[in-house]
Amino acid sequence: MARPRTTSDEAVLRAAGRVLGRLGPGRLTLAAVAAEAGLAPATIVQRFGSKRGLLLALARRAGPDARRFFQDARNRLTRPNGVPGGPAGGAGPLEVLLAALQAMAGTVRTPEEMANSLAFLQLDLTDPEFRELATLHFGIVGEEITALLAEAAAAGDLAPGADTAALARSVHIAYNGVLIVWAMTGEGGTLEQALHAGLDRLLAPHRA
To answer: Per the UniProt record, which residue ranges are transmembrane (predicted)?
Structure first.
């Protein structure tokens, strides 16, 4: 009978994510991930095959993780009936949107970690397999932003006639832009604070 795994693949990927933040994809090694996870390097090889296999597993995890950030924000901030905002209280869809994007950005704590994240972007842009997964992740985030803006419009939180599809694209672009500007300048406090301020300014003219 096979021995049960005492460390799940999910725990290994979380450890790999932490190492990736510190070292970037170029300097990441299976040995460093194994040490972070408390496993033997051979175990990492057995489960993921290679460094590329491990990085691809991280890339596959990004899409579901993004969806989870939005769902967690909904769960934390909405009323018991699951409807954001409204006359009965609770956070509105725009507050849920800002909270979800802040939580996504909160996985990066320093400009160095952002630089390492951007190094992963090089793989996304140059390697077809990584690019496909990055496109999926981008699409998921876009869907979630669009859905919350549509809810905000339906709830009367956006000005009448607001083009939620166009606004969603602007929000998505602004989110990524703030990440890069903050990494370069460090302005605006923490990344979460800079992101909240930047997106709030973008949304302000569209609020009802």
So the answer is: none
Quote the pTM value.
Answer: 0.87
User: What are the tokens at 31?
Assistant: 């040995």
Specify the domain boundaries for CATH 1.10.10.60 within the chain.
Answer: 1-49
List Cα–Cα distances, 51 to 27, 120, 157, 173, 204, in angstroms.
11, 13, 46, 31, 44
- pLDDT tens for residues 29-88? 999 999 999 999 999 999 999 999 999 999 999 999 999 999 999 998 875 554 544 434
> For the segment 53-66, what is each residue's pLDDT rounded down to a tens digit?
999 999 999 999 99
Query: Taking phi first (over 0 means left), then psi (-120 to 50 degrees means alpha), and beta for anything else, what does residue 136 get?
Result: alpha
Non-local (6+) Cβ contacts of 21 within 8 A are 107, 108, 109, 113, 116, 117
Return the closest-CA partner of residue 98 out of 84, 83, 86: 84
How far is Cα 207 from Cα 203, in angstroms, rounded to an integer?
A: 6
Options 1.10.10.60, 3.40.50.300, 1.20.1050.10, 1.10.357.10; CATH for 1-49 is 1.10.10.60
Q: What tokens appear for 30 in the block?
A: 């299976």
